[in-house]
Design a protein that fits this description.
It contains eight helices and no strands. The protein is mainly alpha-helical.
Length: about 160
């Protein structure tokens, strides 16, 4: 048990040392749509950074902008290499396409907080969605997720202090 606590303290110390740059790098990696435990890291940053409500809102906006910028990479890959992705990621692309067909462009925003949101970038590219609506809907969709994760992480700090 003590070893686990020590390991957690080391990880939190490392995140604290990286600071905002590490948080924004996490969001960039998340935006690339690669398998990555971003939710855990963002929650931990909410705990480590202990932003107030206004700082949390501002940080969530910056995080969302970084995520959106990074998400243009899978979007452009889908745009340029649509035949390749249709073959390789058929099951995931079909699932994301189902959301896309059901909810239209808003599926770009609605799916961002969920696992399927990683594939919507490719589907939007394959579907030749214009870049401006894609970027705005991505920003709108990821912002609530970013804010809630920072907020929950911050609240976890208060819960930990209440018990220890």
């Amino acid at each position: 048990m003590e070893r686990n606590i020590f390991l957690i303290q080391q990880i939190l110390g490392w995140l604290d040392h990286l600071g905002t740059v590490g948080l924004l790098l996490t969001m960039f990696i998340e935006g690339l749509s690669v398998p990555f435990p971003g939710i855990i890291i963002v929650l931990a940053y909410g705990y480590v950074m202990n932003f107030n409500i206004w700082e949390s809102l501002l940080m969530a906006l910056v995080m969302s902008a970084i995520y959106t910028i990074a998400s243009f990479i899978p979007y452009l890959l889908g745009y340029k290499l649509d035949a390749f992705f249709k073959k390789r990621l058929k099951k995931s692309i079909d699932k994301a396409r189902g959301w896309f067909n059901k909810y239209g462009l808003w599926s770009i925003a609605v799916t961002r907080p969920f696992g399927i949101g990683n594939y919507i970038s490719y589907v939007a590219g394959i579907s030749k969605v214009k870049w401006l609506p894609y970027g705005l809907l991505t920003l709108v969709g990821i912002f609530p997720w970013a804010f809630v994760m920072i907020f929950i992480g911050r609240e976890a700090l208060q819960i930990v202090h209440a018990f220890f």
